[in-house]
Structure formats: C-alpha cells, structure tokens
Amino acid sequence: MIDLAHPKSWPFEEARKLVERYQNAPPEKGYVLFETGYGPSGLPHIGTFGEVARTSMVRHAFTTLSDIPTKLFCISDDMDGMRKVPENLPNQEMLNHYLHKPLTKVPDPFGTHESYGHHMNARLCAFLDRFGFDYEFKSATDLYAGGVYDATLLRALAAYDKIMKVMLPTLGSERQATYSPFLPISPSTGRVLYVPMKQIDAQAGTITFDDEDGTEITSPVTGGRVKMQWKPDMGMRWAALSVDYEMYGKDHLASANLYSAICRILGNTPPEQFNYELFLDDKGEKISKSKGNGLTIDEWLSYGTPESLSLYMFQSPRKAKRLHFDVIPKNVDEYLTWLTKYPEQTAPEQQDNPAWHIHSGTPPAADISGLSFNLLLNLACACNPEDPAILWGFISRYAPHASPEGNPLLDQLVGYAVRYYHDFVKPAKHYRIANAAEQAALNELKSAIIAAPADADTEALQTEVFTVGKNHGYANLRDWFKTLYEILLGQEQGPRMGSFISLYGRAETCALIDQVLAGQQPMSAA
User: Fold this and answer.
1) Which of 44, 142, 156, 461 matches a 20 to 30 Å C-alpha distance to 361?
2) What is the per-residue burial (b if ≥16 Cβ within 10 Å, else e) of 148-180?
3) Which residues, 6+ apart, have CB-to-CB distance to 410 below 8 Å?
4) What residues are paired with 25 via a beta bridge?
C-alpha cells in the first residue's frame, strides 16, 4: 500500500470513497466487493466492456490506496424470463414455445450449451477473458437455486409491506393492483409469473398465489422457487452479497434510490455508486440497441486498439460522448501520446495518466518509432496501399531499426491504418485543383524540399513549409496547411507536414507536387 493523496483522476476519487468507508475496519466478509450486472438476453456489447473496464479501474486505484483484498463479481441475470425472442437468433419457432421461462430453462438455439442462458453466459465469459479482466462470474440462477440469496429473501418476505411502500408510489394504478416484488416460478409451466400475492407468511417463509391454470399454490421463497422484480432484485443483491461498489448508466439514476432503500430495509448498507452518461451516435442521438445506431466492439477493434477503446471509456465518463467510427483515430493517437509521456512523468503524475489505469499500473513501453496513427493514415492517403507491407516500406526507410517483428504495436497500427483508410478515408477523398497562386506556392515548396540539406530532420522540413506559406501571403498558416491537405491529400485535415515529408520521402513528396503542377490528380486518388 502507498499513500497517494495527489492523484485526481476519477478512479482515485471513487476509490477514496471506499477508503473512507472502511477507514476504521475492513468489511466483515474480508474483502471489498465490486460488482457489475449483465442481462444475458443479448450478446455482450460495448457498454458491457465499458462498465467492467471502468469498474476495474476503480478497483485497481483502491488496491493502490488500501491493503484490503478486493473481488469483482460479474453477475448474469439469467433467471429473468424471456419476454420476447431476439430477431437475430436461429430456431425462432422453437424459442417461441419458451417465452417467459427463465433464460437458463430455454433451450440453446445454437445447440452448443445446456440452455440459452448458459450459451450467453459462456459468451460473456469469453468476452471478458478476451480483454484479460480479473473477475468472478456469478449466475443469478445459481445464486437463487443454490441458497445464496435464501436468508435475504426471507428478510424481504418479512419486510414485504415496507418494500411495497417503497415500490407502489413509482407504479401506475393498474400495475399497483397486481404488483408483487416476488415473481414465483410456476410449478406447472416453469414460467416466471407476474401475479399478485394472495397471502404472505413470513413465519413459514412462503407466498400464496394463483398458478396459470387458476390453481392456488403456496410456495417457499427460497431454493430458486421465486425471483424478485428487477428493481427489488438489485437492492436484494446488494444486501445479500454486501456489495461495496457498483456503477450504472444514467438510465438507472431514477431507480437508484429504490435500490438503496430496499438494501437498507434488508439490513445492509448500499454500495458506493457511480453513474455514467450514455453514448450518442454520429447525429448526437442516444444509442439504442433496437435502432442499431451504435458502434459494436468488434467494429471498434477492426480499426483501433483495445487500449484506445479503454481510453475512450476512461475519458469523461459523466459526459455524453459520440460513439462513432470517426472518434477511433483520435482515441488511438491520444492513447499513444499518454503512453509516450508515461516514462518521463513523476510517480504522482503517472497515477493520473490514463495509461496507468488502462494497464493496471504497468504500461508497456511505446514501440512506435515516433509515429502517430494520424501520420500513418495520411501516409496511406498518399500511397493508396493495398497491403500493410507498402506502408512498412516507407517506415523502414524513415526508421531503419523498426520492423513488424520488433515493433508489434506499430505493426498493429499499420494494419488498422490501411483498413481505416480504405473503408472511411478513401471513399470521401476529394482533390481540389490548385489555382495559379497555389501553384506558385507549391513550386516554391518543391524547390525548398530539394534544396534542404540531406540530413534535414522533420523540424527543419516543417520550418521550410512554414517559410513558404509566409512568403506567399498566408497570414494564418492554418489556411496554408489546409491548402496542402486539400490539394495533395484530398482532405480538409492532415498531418504535420514536416513529419509527413520525412516519412513519405522527399522525392515522393516532390513527385506528388509535380502531378498537381501538371494538372493531374495525385496517383493516390486512383
């Protein structure tokens, strides 16, 4: 344990809440419990990643500040009834026969696991393992049926009226008439029943209700014979497991007080809580799984590193952010910038560096030879590569000691750059024809590049570009660079030109200018 009062990044701010919570004594269970929940009716998605990644960051910050052991439970709500059949599943007709049955009692439409719930749980674990998260998987079915929740369910039965007093004001009059926090599992059909209770017997630990066929049933609330409605279930889970920390999306914010109230009714202290903003699409609208207007995790990982996605999740979690393809390059480069800064920082500064949180305190060395993802993208714009080997041909000349084998991160970036260029940049390229004044400026730039000393580095070449722009009346040099990007690269934004010329090659850059001066579009437009 080290005492770090300095780090101000949000995971440390969250971790300090837990340090204060247990400043006098550790929890009775012997560890601090972090928890995330997962609805297995659909596949794990980018929001699932974000919640586990952010929670893991807070957990690691806490372990830096405290010696108390920690655990992370990832809990699957696989006892929920299947209310509708997702459209993207096979065997739709078969699945329709199992509506309202717990997901772990629905046959697996893929035919690979014991049930649909087991299949989705396996997908969740594979998903989390893919990113190396340290967690313990928990199935709600096992927690209910295995008796882990039994004692808390009996307390909930004894506090039935108090729980109803919390819940009923939040419901419409029609639902109030039939609402119960307990959802019995029909002994005849196996379905999850949304029925009113006819009798509550706290002393016997039973509830009485009418089954689907009208038969009056008296059933224990223990042993997996009932589950709780999702809002009471959250408070019951917190109480039963003594959860210390949980985060959730802004859509849960209105219900958070209910979860906490029920947890207190059941005799436990609610966890420290953190709510994060939801994602927006490219039009600034809320992302919806039903609309399909979001970005999937596989789509992100087709064009950017997992670490860039972790950075996206780290940055401003309480701010609504666009989640679209065009945010990927920015996050890739910001991650590389933080990673490069890390070795030069003091220890307190390092703990506020996102790379520290992304890599649980041990960021790897940056092996990118001073190149950025944006520069690689612009190199792709100039040479229109069909294969990463083409980019490596330029990189090897620019950085002779770099290689795909020796610089695996850089090699990954090259692959991402080629893919991103072909899918997003190339289709939108539009080359502007240079006017007479711009042609004169380009001619002088070509001459300056040729006349520069053979050992001129990127800074020297950047100075030459600046000088030419000033010589041709560009009061705002941003306009000069925009001119170069539009004419030479077919886009409005681009790289630092000195770095680009060094990487692409002085002769190649002059050839690019020659094509423009000859009235031709650069060959990269082909």
Assistant:
1) 44
2) bbbebbebbbebbeebbebbeeeeeeeeeeebb
3) 367, 368, 369, 371, 395, 402, 404
4) none
Q: Domain 436-525: give its CATH code.
A: 1.10.10.350
3 state DSSP class of 488: helix
Residue carrying structure tokens 């039963």: 240
Where in the chain are the domains?
A: 10-149+229-278, 172-228, 297-358, 373-428, 436-525
Q: Is residue 1's pLDDT more than 80?
A: no
What is the average pLDDT value for the chain, to the nearest integer? 94
The CATH number of 10-149+229-278, from 2.40.100.20, 2.40.50.840, 3.40.50.620, 3.30.950.10, is 3.40.50.620
Question: Angle 328-341/306-314 helices, nearest 10 degrees?
Answer: 90
Nearest to 277 by CA among 305, 249, 235, 253: 249
pTM over 0.90: yes
Residue with tokens 């000069």: 480
Phi, psi of 316 (to 5 degrees): 45, 65
Quote the pLDDT of residue 525: 39
Q: Which helix (H) or strand (E) holds 321?
A: strand 321-322
C-alpha closest to that of 76 among 119, 106, 111: 119
